[in-house]
């Protein structure tokens, strides 16, 4: 349902497309988590910038890991010590380098910050992040108070995404929202206590 880019820098019109996760071996190679739909595409961008835009990186894909990461070589990075310095560095590209999203597709960058309401009009908060843990995209919603809310980003549960109006409408199934989970637990407790009284 979404185009797989992550963590925007909207003010600078840049989008985060990858992040170095750790050094790999002793020759200066790194593990890279790509956020593009086709992971290898991250090496095709003309300019990959650091988060503060002070550095640029020339990345070459060497191989793939079994954990969805790429093994890459970065021009000018020789040896494990140099590679370790890049751990956690996020890589950005200009939004102009990205193709337009298709129908029912959205760049993660455009979802961050949208207000979230239920189909009944209840405000839940704002979209804080978008994750893919392997079973599909999840919206992380930051409420005004309370714990973070995770919602599957599917057409059934998120029927409306209106970028222009800055809103997302969700239709969560029973038990998905934190307060509904608490109510469900209370109902179970009441039933259990009632059963005990009946046994006496």
TrEMBL record:
Q: Does the keyword Calcium apply?
A: no
NCBIfam families noted in UniProt: 16S_RimM (TIGR02273)
Q: What does this protein do?
A: An accessory protein needed during the final step in the assembly of 30S ribosomal subunit, possibly for assembly of the head region. Essential for efficient processing of 16S rRNA. May be needed both before and after RbfA during the maturation of 16S rRNA. It has affinity for free ribosomal 30S subunits but not for 70S ribosomes.
Tell me the compartments it is located in.
Cytoplasm
Residue ranges with Basic residues bias: 182-191
Write out the GO cellular component annotations.
Answer: cytoplasm; ribosome
Q: Where is this region: Disordered?
A: 173-200
Record's comment describing the protein's domains: The PRC barrel domain binds ribosomal protein uS19.
The organism is Candidatus Terasakiella magnetica
Subunit structure comment from the entry:
Binds ribosomal protein uS19.
Record keywords, A-Z: Chaperone, Cytoplasm, Ribosome biogenesis, rRNA processing
Ribosome maturation factor RimM PRC barrel domain segment(s)? 109-176
BP GO annotations: ribosomal small subunit biogenesis; rRNA processing
The molecule here is called Ribosome maturation factor RimM
InterPro entries reported for this sequence = PRC_barrel-like_sf, PRC_RimM, RimM, RimM_N, RimM_N_sf, Transl_B-barrel_sf
- Say which family it is in: Belongs to the RimM family.
């Amino acid at each position: 349902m979404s185009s797989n880019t992550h963590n925007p820098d909207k003010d600078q019109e840049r989008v985060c497309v990858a992040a170095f996760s750790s050094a790999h071996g002793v020759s200066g190679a790194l593990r890279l988590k790509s956020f593009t739909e086709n992971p290898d595409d991250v090496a095709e961008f003309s300019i990959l910038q650091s988060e503060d835009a002070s550095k640029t990186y020339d990345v070459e894909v060497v191989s793939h890991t079994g954990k969805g990461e790429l093994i890459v070589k970065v021009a000018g990075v020789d040896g494990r010590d140099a590679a370790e310095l890049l751990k956690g560095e996020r890589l950005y590209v200009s939004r102009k380098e990205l193709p337009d999203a298709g129908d029912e597709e959205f760049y993660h960058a455009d979802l961050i910050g949208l207000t979230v309401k239920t189909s009944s009009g209840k405000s839940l908060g704002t979209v804080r992040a978008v994750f893919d843990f392997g079973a599909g995209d999840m919206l992380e919603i930051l409420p005004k108070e309370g714990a973070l809310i995770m919602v599957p980003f599917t057409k059934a549960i998120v029927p409306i995404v209106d970028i222009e109006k800055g809103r997302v409408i969700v239709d969560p199934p029973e038990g998905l929202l934190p307060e509904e989970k608490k109510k469900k637990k209370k109902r179970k407790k009441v039933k259990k206590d009632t059963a005990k009284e009946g046994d006496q």
